[in-house]
Design brief:
The complex is a heterodimer of chains A (336) and B (168). Chain A has 336 residues and is of the alpha+beta class. Chain A is built from 13 helices and 12 strands. Helices cover 29% and strands 20% of the residues of chain A. Chain A is globular. Chain A starts with a strand and ends in a 12-residue tail after the last helix. Chain B is α+β, with helices and mostly antiparallel strands. Chain B has 6 helices and 6 strands; from the N terminus they run E-E-E-H-E-E-E-H-H-H-H-H. Chain B has 2 domains: 83 residues, Beta-grasp domain (Ubiquitin-like (UB roll)), CATH 3.10.20; 67 residues, [2Fe-2S]-binding domain (DNA polymerase, domain 1), CATH 1.10.150.120. The chains are: A alpha+beta (336), B alpha+beta (168). Strand 1 of chain A pairs antiparallel with strand 1 of chain B, so a sheet runs across the interface. The complex binds flavin-adenine dinucleotide, iron/sulfur cluster and FE2/S2 (inorganic) cluster (FES) (2 copies).
Chain lengths: 336, 168
């Protein structure tokens, strides 16, 4: 780990101030940043400890919920309001990492965690995300875990978060503060595709800090699932995951929302596929057609072509679980 | 309160206070020292193990303010003011914690390297109170890898303590 200055911020303004100038990083749970610093992938000159800021409450907010950036993943997942009103979020958080990691990991840190691309983690290899302009060895290299949607010729990394897949399906908003005040960012505009600048994971501007994740008022909580498919049954990142929420009006889908994890540089939604399901019956046939709309856009590599069919089946299974009101269990590993 | 170690990287150590296994200690730590390294290298509390040093094995699990975390990914300076419990603080030979006794009873280890982390993690998990079945124990304990594969007996030991309510 490199040497750095340590600043403990007492207010949001102090944190924003301390972020300016030096190559500074915010640190919250530290479960991603400390790991990356040990690998020399992150080499900040200054760490700004934000764990003492008053951003650790879950509050009712405009009919929805406001989850402070410092609320740990464990507290968010087991909060009664989250578990009863946004069970897809609780389920997604609990599908990620471990009991120990979720006790330390924060909402803001989870949102801003970096890719698990092996080359990104290995500072002996080139990587456009780590060092812009050096190349992307994952293209044509080992790319089993990489993206099949929204890739660019400069980067095929995925965003690894489970929590964010549920937040995408829920149309959350991210509230941030920076040198020029506060603003809210719709979830779909928070993370970005790599394009020509894969060094940027999201649209947070220099000096900005996440204050909270805001969940909109939610009318349905029973027809959902978070289905995570991975190389082992626990303690592994998703190869493909799906967060699905269906609003059902009798035998008709009045609204379908679903997002995929493990397949793109951001949680992946497809408006056309969701619109296709609107007004239709929740049948396997319709779910298959929706899945086909999604995977039509896939551009896989040699190592991850299996993800296309895996994603198709995950969508169909996820929508089926949501429609039946039988969400995937976190501890019973059989896929319902 | 703004605490600043000074710039540019002037001050090598920062004063913090930690209550470790019931004893409050004022310590000088470099900001890049992990809680794990402080415990093992600085304070000779070598019961807590370093397996991977990257959050991937759980051998370094300790309780911070009663919550289990991976001490390898925690910077000691950030825990200023916290209460830390390590395996040494849970129990000692002759006055074992119910989990320690159950691990012995159920032969829940081979080499023993993962055991302190397993036991601290299990203590944290029981206090959380979210696991009620064997299946849920397995999922809740997935952050502790045992390279000897003693999992069956580890779950037996934890289930035993959970059912007897002894850890509460
Ligand atoms: C072994 C292992 C397995 C894991 N498995 C999973 C998994 O299966 N699924 C999953 O989703 N995740 C998984 N994770 C990742 C874990 O969820 C993240 O490490 C964690 O959520 C990061 O939160 P943190 O508070 O510790 O962030 P930190 O490490 O403190 O910070 C991470 C990044 O976020 C920035 N940041 C932190 N807070 C803010 C803020 N308020 N505003 C702006 N920027 C901020 C930091 O500057 C840093 O760049 C795993 C991690 C490990 C080590
Ligand atoms: S996929 Fe992205 S993160 Fe991975 S090596 Fe290529 S540029 Fe780097
Ligand atoms: S040493 Fe901390 S998790 Fe492996
Ligand atoms: S007993 Fe050897 S690693 Fe678990």
């Amino acid at each position: 780990m490199n040497r750095f200055d340590y600043v403990r911020a007492g207010t949001v303004a102090e944190a924003v101030q301390a972020l300016s100038g030096a190559n500074a990083r915010l640190i919250a749970g530290g479960t991603n940043l400390v790991d990356l610093m040990k690998y020399n992938v992150e080499r900040p000159d200054r760490l700004v400890d934000i764990t003492r800021l008053p951003l650790n409450a879950i509050e009712d907010h405009e009919g929805g919920l406001r989850i402070g950036a410092l609320v740990t993943n464990a507290i968010a997942a087991y909060d009664e309001r989250v578990a009863s009103r946004y069970p897809v979020l609780a389920s997604a958080i609990l599908a990620g990492a471990t009991g120990q990691l979720r006790n330390a990991a924060t909402t803001g840190g989870n949102l801003n965690q970096r890719t698990r691309c092996y080359y990104f983690y290995d500072d002996a290899t080139p990587c456009n995300k780590r060092e812009p302009g050096t190349g992307c060895p994952a293209i044509g290299g080992v790319n089993r875990i990489h993206a099949i949607f929204g890739i660019s010729p400069t980067c095929i990394a995925t965003h690894p978060s489970d929590m964010c897949v549920a937040l995408a399906a829920l149309d959350a908003e991210i509230r941030v503060a920076g040198p020029s005040g506060e603003r809210s960012i719709p979830f779909s505009e928070y993370h970005r595709l790599p394009g020509g600048t894969p060094q940027f994971d999201n649209t947070l501007q220099p000096g900005e800090i996440v204050l909270s994740v805001d969940l909109p008022a939610q009318d349905t909580a029973s027809h959902y699932t978070y289905l995570k498919l991975r190389d082992r049954l626990s303690y592994a990142f998703a190869l493909v995951s799906v967060a699905a929420i269906l609003d059902l009006d009798g035998d008709t889908v009045s609204r379908a929302r679903f997002a995929l994890g493990g397949v793109a540089h951001k949680p992946w939604r497809n408006a056309e596929a969701e619109a296709f399901l609107q007004g239709k019956a929740p049948t396997r046939e319709n779910f298959e057609a929706a899945a086909d709309i999604v995977i039509r856009e896939a551009t896989p590599q040699d190592g991850n072509a299996f993800k296309v069919e895996l994603a198709r089946r995950a969508i169909i299974r996820g929508l089926t679980q949501a429609a039946a009101g039988t969400p995937q269990s976190v501890s019973d590993k059989r896929i319902a | 309160m703004l605490i600043d170690s000074g710039s540019p990287r002037a001050m090598e150590t920062i004063g913090i206070s930690l209550t470790i296994n019931g004893e409050t200690r004022n310590l000088q730590v470099a900001p890049w020292t992990t809680l794990l390294d402080l415990l093992r290298e600085g304070l000779d509390l070598t019961g807590t193990k370093k397996g991977c040093d990257h959050g991937q094995c759980g051998a370094c699990t300790v309780l911070v303010d009663g919550k289990r975390i991976n001490s390898c990914l925690a910077l000691a300076v950030m825990k200023d003011g916290a209460e830390i419990t390590t395996i040494e603080g849970l129990g000692q030979a002759g006055a074992m914690h119910p989990l320690q006794a159950a691990f012995v009873e159920h032969d829940a280890f081979q080499c023993g390297y993962c055991t302190p982390g397993q036991i601290c993690s299990a203590a944290g998990m029981l206090a959380e109170g979210h696991a009620h079945s064997r299946e849920e124990i397995r999922e809740a304990m997935s952050g502790n890898i045992c390279r000897c594969g003693a999992y069956t007996n580890i779950v037996d030991a934890i289930e035993d303590v959970m059912q007897s309510g002894a850890a509460r």
